[in-house]
Amino acid sequence: MQLGDLELHLLVTDHWKADGGLMFGVVPKILWEKQKPADGRNMIDCSCVCLVARVNGRVIVCETGIGNKLSEKRAQQVALREPEDMLHALRRLGIQPNEVDAVVTTHLHWDHAGGLTRRNQQGALELTFPNARHFIQRDEWDFALQPDVRSRPSYVIDDFTPLADGHKAVEFLDGDAEVLPGVQIRHVGGHTPGSQVLILHSGELACAVTGDLVCLTPHLRVPWNMAADLEPLRVFQQKSQLFEEAEKHRWLLVLSHEPDQPAGYLEDGGVWRPEPRLT
Ligand SMILES: [Zn+2]
After folding, report:
1. 8 Å CB contact between 107 and 212
2. 44 C-alpha vs ligand 1 centroid, how far in Å?
3. Centroid of ligand 1 to alpha carbon of 181 (angstroms)
4. Interval between CA 212 and ligand 1 midpoint (Å)
5. HSE, side-chain direction, 13 A CA sphere, residue 158
6. Residue 166 reports pLDDT greater than 80
7. Torsions phi, psi of 105, nearest 5?
8. What's the CA-to-centroid distance between 19 and ligand 1, angstroms?
């Protein structure tokens, strides 16, 4: 779809399942399962939602999904099915990987950063977008290299270290930044130390890619957050601020793992209005 000068495309790269308790933390199951029914293993449907934008002639990829390196064991654990290769999806849009100018992942967890690198046919690791600048918070990078004991399984170093080893593909950010004209990154923290939200602007219009600040539509309630969040109170504060701006200025929001209509608007004090042109 076109949003002012922005050409936006959603790529849903993966369908998988996450534990309901992981996704909703202290929210009672009797409340969340009305909206997100769990299967016999207490797992709920998720996807990985990536946004591709053309802004002033540049191509920006935000979020890269799980990618093609996940171990078979892990893929089974998360019931990963029919992963659509991101490059395949990009080619349908007429975009070659070496034409991507900028890549933003909201954080470096495996389900967001997995697609930054890939294994080629010889089994060697390579960058998925060899000519792109990759914008990552320095806090996130440092934490991902030495995570706390609980966060350790969420980071896979092969996803991101090749960006810095032998390549100069990373640009480290220390907080908020405007990385290209109209392309704003907001450091929100909370879920992980360096979690960030991407906000693309075209005049009065804007589109925000929320990352795991807002995973699924039930997370549009401020106090409904993931058990995995490192700093829940910071999540609530950042969500409140984002929702206030998004509703007031009618920003288009893209939710990170919502399998059913992940892009939309907040209206009338929190009503979700999906954007049918972006599915
Ligand atoms: Zn995630």
Report:
1. yes
2. 13
3. 27
4. 5
5. 15
6. no
7. -110, 140
8. 12
Per domain, the residue ranges of the chain are 2-274
Helix (H) or strand (E) holding 238: helix 232-249
Q: How far apart are CA 41 and CA 20, in angstroms?
A: 9
Span from the CA of 95 to the centroid of ligand 1 (angstroms): 25
pLDDT in tens, 12-34: 989 999 999 999 999 999 999 99
pLDDT band at 270 (very low <50, low <70, confident <90, very high): confident
DSSP single-letter state for residue 34: T
Give distance in angstroms: CA of 191 to centre of ligand 1.
9
Interatomic CA distance for residues 97 and 132, integer angstroms: 9
pTM assigned to the model: 0.96
User: For 118, which DSSP code?
Assistant: E
For residue 226, give the nearest of 16, 14, 17, 21 by alpha carbon. 21
Place of tokens 């922005």: 6
Fold entry, domain 2-274: Metallo-beta-lactamase; Chain A (3.60.15)
Q: Please, is 151 exposed, middle or buried when counting C-beta atoms within 10 Å of its C-beta (0-12, 13-18, 19+)?
A: middle
- Separation between Cα atoms, residue 122 and residue 57, nearest integer Å: 34
Q: How confident is the model at residue 279 (pLDDT cuts 50, 70, 90)?
A: low
Q: Which two tokens stand for residue 111?
A: 């389900």
Give me the residues near ligand 1 (ion), CB cutoff below 5 Å: 111, 212
Question: Residue 111 Cα, ligand 1 centroid: separation in angstroms?
Answer: 5
Distances in Å between the Cα of 106 and the Cα atoms of 82, 177, 199 are 23, 13, 11
241 pLDDT above the threshold of 90:
yes
Q: Which residue has the tokens 């906000």?
A: 199
